[in-house]
Amino acid sequence: MILTPHRYARLFLGGSALVLSAVVLSACAPANNGLQRDVATQLQARVLEVTQASSQNDPASALKALDGLESDLSAAQARGRVSEDRRRSITTVATAVRADLNEALSAQQAKAAEDARIAAGQSPSPAPEASVSQPAPPPAPAPGNASGNGTDTGKNNGDKGKGRN
Question: Which of 14, 15, 19, 38 is nearest to 90 (CA)?
Answer without folding.
Answer: 19
